[in-house]
User: Which sequence fits this backbone?
């Protein structure tokens, strides 16, 4: 089926503007609304590539963040264990001091 040059094919979702709509702001000096430009294939490929890169960056960032959280939690646990060990050592030292002071 051959298309005639006088009736251009409109993309899906777009309607052809009637002559009344195209002159609808002429009296007031307003310009009629324009259709958005159609994205080109290059633009779409570039956007898709950018999206993939951003997704990879976010994944890598999330992995680093999770690793930092695990390291931080491990550091907190080490600090708790050191404090607990210090308390235990202090308690034992106090007990030895008591034994050394008792008359024998």
Assistant:
């Amino acid at each position: 089926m051959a298309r005639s040059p006088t009736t251009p094919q409109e993309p899906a979702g777009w309607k052809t503007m009637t002559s009344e709509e195209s002159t609808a702001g002429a009296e007031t000096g307003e310009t009629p609304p324009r259709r958005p430009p159609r994205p080109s294939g290059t633009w779409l490929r570039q956007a898709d590539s950018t999206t993939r890169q951003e997704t990879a960056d976010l994944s890598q960032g999330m992995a680093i963040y999770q690793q930092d959280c695990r390291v931080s939690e491990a550091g907190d646990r080490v600090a708790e264990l050191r404090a607990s060990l210090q308390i235990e050592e202090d308690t034992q030292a106090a007990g030895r001091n008591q034994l050394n002071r008792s008359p024998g």
Observations:
- Residues 61-104 form one domain.
